[in-house]
Amino acid sequence: MSLDFKPDLGDFFKEETFRDDFTFKNSPASIARFPFPFDRDEYMYSVNMEPHVSGRPGSVFEKTFDVDEHYVSEMIDRAKVLAEDPLRCQSLPHMTLAGWDLLELIMDSTARDYPQWFSLHKNANQWHWINRPLGIDQKFTFLDGSTLPYGPMEYITRQMQGDFSLQDERDGNLWMDAGMITTQADWSLDFDVGMNFMEWHAPVPLAHEKQVFDRALKFLLKLQNGSPVRRFNWTMTVNPLLDTAPETYPKWGPTKASLTPENLGSKQHLRVELQALFRLPRSNAIAFSIRAYLGKFEELVTMPKWGRRLHRVLRDIHPEIAAYKGFARNQPAMVEWLAKYDDGKPTSAGWWPEPE
Amino acid sequence: MSKTIFPQSIKSRPVYATLEPRPGKAHLVIADGEGADALGDLLDKAPDRAGMLGAMHILYTPGPNGTDLWAKVQGFGAAQTYRAPTIPAMLPRLSKVVSEAHMGTQFYVTGTEGLMGQAEREIMMTGLPFGAIQKEHRGSTLRRVQCVHCKGITENVALDPFACSHCGLHLFVRDHYSRRIAAFQGVNIDAEDPGLVPAAVERFK
Questions:
Q1: ipTM, 2 decimals?
Q2: B26-32 and A163-170 as β-strands: parallel, antiparallel, unpaired?
């Protein structure tokens, strides 16, 4: 059982690492399209969902699933994480049909949006999938698990950037009963799989009291097939480490103590999650894609508006949010480093960058 | 010992009610330690005590604090009464009894959180929703904790932080709880500053 990559980087995809020597960085084009998550100079939890419709051309909102210059290297990193810890991908027995739904959604979307990289040919249930960047050519029978080297969810999410979880709907709640989670902001799929919406969000501070999760759940239970929604979430990560898992916290935790004024700009990353939710047609489950983008502080401040705003957001953040997101110890150093990029000028509304 | 009042906590932390008699064709009771007292209170409330006992199967084991009320449990005179020396020793029989339970069986689980969590997990594996299982906490508040790093489970945790009985890392005990694993989550407390382990406090008794 394997999915042997024979990657073809071409002239778009970058060879880089998210571990060991951490060679990841964003090209200028990638910085310009970075999904900066703050639309104002302050931050508090909210039900910040909007329709996941095609957005500004070239932006991360343009396609259903954003495939960018980091694609091939991220998929190689995921394969390494799974080889070290197979528990990062789990699917409870009743979730196989939802896995096929997700496979179809990703194959249909990417073959439509990126015909130069992905192709899907269907003859009834006889499907032929080609993934050129990873060098995969697979003929299989849709809904027949014996024709793929992995279960359907694992097969397709080994080929798509971002984490994915699948939620079963029953008893007026959503139950996270499957997932591929290797680029997570410090939460454990192995511990949380099988939990309902309120339970897996239980450790989040402040938001329960603000009824954020009650309202979000009500909203999501009404989600319709064909009308996906999206939202942002964010946190902070030292080094471009996609896999900040609780399982390996003893390995990466000490890096939080490694920041200096000299290295902060290149080591400290704003980690943004573009989260999208899709109602699936056969299983009635909800697929949740959690796509992580990493931006170095020194990359983000090349956009003057973002430099000013990031400084103000972090300076004024609620202490409980800084503690929950795990950057309280480095908050003063971050704010001090960013201060030189904040000249006090007003910022315009919305998150888009502005050349000056 | 009466019902335990736990402090307000996060939404994944289980909460427990008081056992109430419900009409059923069969009554399966799983208890440890002081859970025997909750069973006594349940029977005192039963409209048809003799009828309930005539259709009752009790699985009992002493509590992690040593409380052994086996004589009291035997004295109820249920149709079947079984004593296991430990929870792990009880699990094979529990698994068989639960898998053969018919529609209309009532489940009563009472005692420590470790016992209730593992019994609930066995019952849920049959497809029964956890809401259909009555649970009442009695006795010890010692915790069953899974190390999120090595995945090993340490039973009867009293101290916070404590050393994982499998990998030895110093773990702090969260209130985050998994029904699937039947355990609270333990996370390395000195990951960011290796060696800086605060003094342990006896949080659970």
A1: 0.91
A2: unpaired
